[in-house]
Amino acid sequence: MHLVPAERADRRAIDGHRVCDAVAAIGEPDHVRAWAERFSLLSDPGRLALLVALRQTGPLAVSDLAIATGMNGPAVSQALRLLRAAGVVAGEKDGRVVRYRIIDPITADLLRHCVCGSG
């Protein structure tokens, strides 16, 4: 089956079957965009450190995350705001303390492959 979009069908392919396989692998532009946004969240060292810490330990408060990552409290709060808005983390209130945890299973699975602390 020919999967090359009509607007690109006039171009001469060297390995046409591989081009079709590549088009199928890339899939829908919205799906690619969603993955790019997910990787963008992980591309910031501070956010990545927060997520690695949360994946390893489970729920942590902002102050504890600041200690663990070496970030200041406002920077941790700002990063968590972005991660929360993206649906990656959620906070659970326990009295006056809010503990954050990862709720996005795809991000958690990606982090499983992150070996930031080992060398």
Automatic annotation (TrEMBL):
InterPro entries: ArsR-like_HTH (IPR011991), HTH_ArsR_DNA-bd_dom (IPR001845), Metal_resp_trans_reg (IPR051011), WH-like_DNA-bd_sf (IPR036388), WH_DNA-bd_sf (IPR036390)
Gene Ontology MF terms: DNA binding; DNA-binding transcription factor activity
Protein's UniProt keywords contain Transcription: yes
CDD domains linked: HTH_ARSR (cd00090)
Keywords for the protein's UniProt record, in alphabetical order: DNA-binding, Transcription, Transcription regulation
Superkingdom, natural source: Bacteria
DNA-binding listed as a keyword: yes
PROSITE patterns: HTH_ARSR_2
One family name in Pfam for this protein: HTH_5
Chain ranges of the HTH arsR-type domain: 27-119
Name of the featured protein: Helix-turn-helix transcriptional regulator
